[in-house]
Amino acid sequence: MKQNSWRSAYYNQNHFVLKLGISILLVGFGFRLLFSHSSNVIPNETDNILITPVVENDLNPVPSDFVESPKEFNQFQSKDDESGECDIFDGEWIPRSGSPAYTNNTCRWIESHQNCMGNGRPDTGYIDWKWSPKACELPRFDAKKFLERMRDKSWAFVGDSITRNHLQSFICLLSQVEDAVDIYHDEAYKNRKWHFPTYNLTVSVVWSPFLAKAEIFEDVNGVSTSEIEVHMDVLDKTWTEQFSTWDYILFSSGKWFIKSAIYYENNSILGCHGCEGKNYTDLGFNIAYQKILKNLFDFIMNSNPKSMIIYRTSTPDHFENGSWSTGGSCDRTVPAKEGEFELGVLNRILREVELPEISRAREWASETGVKLKLLDVTPLSLVRPDGHPGPYRHFYPFAKDKNAKVQYDCLHWCLPGPIDSWNDLLMNLVLNG
Ligand SMILES: *[C@@H]1O[C@H](CO)[C@@H](O)[C@H](O)[C@H]1NC(C)=O
Ligand SMILES: *[C@@H]1O[C@H](CO)[C@@H](O)[C@H](O)[C@H]1NC(C)=O
Ligand SMILES: *[C@@H]1O[C@H](CO)[C@@H](O)[C@H](O)[C@H]1NC(C)=O
Ligand SMILES: *[C@@H]1O[C@H](CO)[C@@H](O)[C@H](O)[C@H]1NC(C)=O
Ligand SMILES: *[C@@H]1O[C@H](CO)[C@@H](O)[C@H](O)[C@H]1NC(C)=O
Ligand SMILES: *[C@@H]1O[C@H](CO)[C@@H](O)[C@H](O)[C@H]1NC(C)=O
């Protein structure tokens, strides 16, 4: 029944998607990369910048055209309780005492842009919350137990820079028991592999922001020199070629679809999204995301994997009073109240694509015995505007000038921070599933 309500909600949104398509056409699409070279661990972080000018409308206040009531939004909650089991995604953040599982001093794998402690973020309250499901207790990630259960296994995190953000939390948590050994990285540190020797566990992160084949044209500063070319019918071989070697695979995507792109099918141009001044049909990015997810799940089901597949839903940013490119900020230090933040238009569209596609795939999976799990972090992330680096994506940003104008990151997450809870949930899904 729940699934039906997602579906009907999905179809009811079609007029809304059309409107959005039109409004997106009206928006300019210059992609600017705003990053500093201060990074001390990871060179040239060009992919961090998922943000496009369109994201301006991606958060409260929702443009009046698109105002949604909280009740409506509830239809998009991905309840997973047909069996009467506890829905671990339905809960609230409650204060937690004690120290974080790791800090900038005990984990050496934190990317400088997400190392909020190391970059001098003065408040620490954002660390002291835990996710508490309404109907059951969610144990904290237990690295020792997890490693024991993952002997001789291989894990892969496939997706974009938020996927990598999540992966770093995972590596940091595990590294409290045994430090990871870096066994592979490419030049840009976008594809990387670690090994935990005592447990013979390997963990890979695979850069594939669209999950499908995509040509991205960016200069050394990350400025787009041409539209991205996305092949909607071809999955990215970066991950498909390794797929059968992994025991646990976590996929996620989303934000890159918002960027302007030309969409290909069968090697010919089918249309585009936000490609001003070009004579292509604007298809809207939801079409591309949907086709690619459908292909992804078809691929998975047709390969009849022994591995466990987890799909993580897309996550909201929390820019206030502006966007990435117009000086938006995020200065909050405590979680928001439920309902205080609504999912912005663009995130809603991503969600309206992914929930029905995942639901359809899970029905299929349950018939064929494929292990497919949903990691639905969207609602619980929506109420954590306090968990982003903000100005502390830079090393002591106000050291020289208290009023310095610095680029805020209200999209990625501080490490440690609320993103660590994603791994509490992940452990629960994997070990109890
Ligand atoms: C971690 O952060 C604290 C607080 O900013 C800082 O004093 C310390 O030097 C940092 N540790 C490392 C290893 O960077
Ligand atoms: C480590 O695990 C891999 C599978 O991930 C397996 O092929 C290999 O034999 C294991 N190595 C040892 C020493 O057990
Ligand atoms: C990385 O950035 C440095 C400047 O900080 C530049 O000299 C170098 O060419 C860049 N490397 C790549 C691969 O973009
Ligand atoms: C792709 O092209 C081939 C031959 O050019 C054709 O047989 C096939 O039906 C096309 N597929 C799609 C999805 O258009
Ligand atoms: C745009 O494409 C249509 C149909 O493909 C064509 O009729 C029209 O002349 C094109 N317009 C321009 C300005 O190229
Ligand atoms: C946004 O702007 C309003 C009015 O200028 C101000 O009261 C509020 O504190 C700002 N919010 C943030 C997060 O900067």
UniProtKB/TrEMBL annotation:
Keyword annotations from UniProtKB, A to Z: Membrane, Signal-anchor, Transmembrane, Transmembrane helix
Record keyword Transcription present: no
Trichome birefringence-like C-terminal domain sequence ranges: 138-428
Record keyword Membrane present: yes
Record InterPro entries: TBL, TBL_C, TBL_N
A Pfam cross-reference name: PC-Esterase
Compartments it resides in: Membrane
TM helices/strands, residue ranges: 16-35
Domain Trichome birefringence-like N-terminal positions: 85-137
GO cellular component: Golgi apparatus; membrane
GO molecular function: O-acetyltransferase activity
Main location, first listed in the record: membrane
Membrane topology term: Single-pass membrane protein
Family of the protein in this entry: Belongs to the PC-esterase family. TBL subfamily.
Name of the protein described by the UniProt record: Trichome birefringence-like N-terminal domain-containing protein
Annotated organism of origin: Deinandra increscens subsp. villosa
